[in-house]
Amino acid sequence: MRFYEIPLNLKTEIDQFAVLVEEFKKGRIEKAKFRAFRVPFGVYEQRKDDTYMVRVRCTAGGITPEQLKTVTLLSEQYGSGFIHITTRQEVQIHDVALDNIVPVMKELLKVGLSTRGGGGNTVRNIMASWDSGIAKDEVFNVAPYAIALSSLLISESDSWVLPRKFKISFSNSDKDDAYACFNDLGFIATTQNGEKGFKVYVAGGMGIKPQVGRLLHDFIPADQIHFVTEAVKRLFDQYGNRRNKHAARLRFLWNSLGQERFVELYRQEVNKLKSNGYEPLCIIDNDNRTKWVDLDFHEVSSGDFDLWKRRFVFEQKQKGLYFIIVPIHFGKLESRNAIKIADLLNSFGENTIRFTMDQNITFRNIPEAYLGNIYRLSKRVSDLTSKPKLFGNSIACAGADTCRLGICLPRGALKAIHQKLDSSNLDLDQISDFKFNLSGCPNTCGQHMVADLGFYGKVARKGQAMYPAYNVVAGSVVGHGSARFAKLVGKISSRDLPAFVVDVLKIYLDKKDKHASFADYIDNQGAEDIRQICAKYKNVPDFAEDKNYYFDWGANEQFSLAGKGVGECSAGLFDLIDVDVNFIRKKKEELEKLEDNSKIGDTLYQITLAASRMLLITRGIEAGSENDVFKSFSEHFIRSGLIASAFQPMLDMAKSANKENLVPLRIQVFDLADTVQHLYESMDDSLRFPGEPARMEITDGYKGEAQTKETNYDVFKDLRGVVCPMNFMKTKMELANMTAGQTLKILLDDGLPIENVPRSVAEEGHEILEQKRKENHWQVLIRKKD
Asked: Which CATH number fits domain 303-386: 3.90.480.20, 3.40.30.10, 3.40.50.1000, 3.10.450.350?
């Protein structure tokens, strides 16, 4: 069986990608351009330069034993020697060298697997309830619909060029264990008058600006899902925000259009599809039964075996068959264990393996007589099989271990939490479905917003020293009609996190019988309990008193922002300038080969434009049109005396319709470019040029806040709506105008602004005194370095 059909053109696309790899190796393609091609192929560069992760599509978490073995052998041959299960039910191969990416893709293709759509602005892996087809309480099996829809979408070229990633999920009941309410498009199984169908949610998502999906349909017939999906995809493609990736997800489009307009446009797209005769989906049921097994069974009789069955073994709706959960540490499955799984499960048929959103692996269609075989395998694969089920429910993203945006090390913290829980006397089997998830930064890769108890990494300070810490969120609700994200209830140092978790679970277990759920407990008393526990750990010792607080879990070096992800604002500022520097150099070289005056004039114009644009960013200017570039350059560089006024007539001539007028002025054009280049090289770290006054007026659309008796800062700047790296540049210039020790308060948007600006400022030696979330933005207080 296959969990999606491979598009006919995929082999050709892989061959084309192979050509791009060779061009990149020869330096003929820029790194940024190569990235734009490789990411939609599911290829990501890891924290270590020139090593890559390859993500493999596994619709509904499904993979056959043969496919699993192939992926594993590829990891052994070309990668790290382990495979990684993701929270979108996929599998990844890590540490793949550039030369080995294409061979991996071609070998995957042979067994019906693809990396296409593993990243980028594409239709991502379609999720489904991992127990679809076998759960006793499901409405019906949704996996065949996810598989059919996946096969359709990955065959369509517009699925790879969307404004932003497009995530789809199917749940087999109102429990919504596949998070349909939290995806861009979610389907929840239901029936109406005996007919199979779906409730449809749209515009959900996690990320730094999470949103619960909006109910688009309370019922659509099951055979209509492709109309719904294609209509939403086309609406997204046509109206989505392609200019600002931080406001590009489908939920931002819903909010900008408004419900009424969004639904109106959606219905128009549905009607177009139906009138054009859009092809129906081909639904093929995936039978859940076992094949004849030629395998000796192992009888096991012990208390440990019985306890394992109570925790991890469940009856299917197919009589005599069982499904088993195998918890995997961080989704990291060693190749030798993955091969053992593939070899044993192959005995029971192709439809035997699913990956879960908790990064675990499940087996299905296992006869009761062979549970002993599975028990022995499970114990070899994971020591979590001897722990309470709660241990396997926990998620921790990679954080700063491998992620370029990571702040903390959540996997180290989760290990410490497990150890602390293991040594506690808590009866964790009472809360077997409890989830606590950790993310290394405000992004929700660790799904902290849908946890009972969630944490996301942050930087905290004790005097001048930084230490790793986490914001605490709690009380999410998952399910149709009641879905909500966890809410912020406190903060805690990373060092105190394990003891904090034990304290929270202890008090909850004491009060559990009085509440319908952990979310109910949070709503009624739990949030205040957690705040009091946070207060208990509020006082962090000085470094001299206990240096452990200043080392993250699993780290050998003292916590700092260095290496925890690049402060990309500062780098982005100079990268933008360097683009024009390199462009001018390239155009000068091209001129040597040109003879036609029209082409010479056009090239000279492009050099003049780039030279005029190059340093505008240092003045906080994002010029729109080419005329705006020349106007702003004249105002801020020529009239200010930074560039000689003798160049003004040439600039005026450049704005004329006839670019050939510049041909006799080649030397002046080159002089302008060289003058701007020299000015750039003379710029100091405060973005000032020689002879410039100490204070500068910064051009932007925001006005400073009036100083009042209540303010605890010297200067204020509202940078909401200002993108990277412009927001950092404006912060840098404000600091340049201040004296040592003064404080600057800035307002920043969520996303890259709050991730990068404080980090970049701190890297320049300034002190981040405070960083607070205020509704939909952030408030940052900075003290200028001495």
From this structure: 3.90.480.20
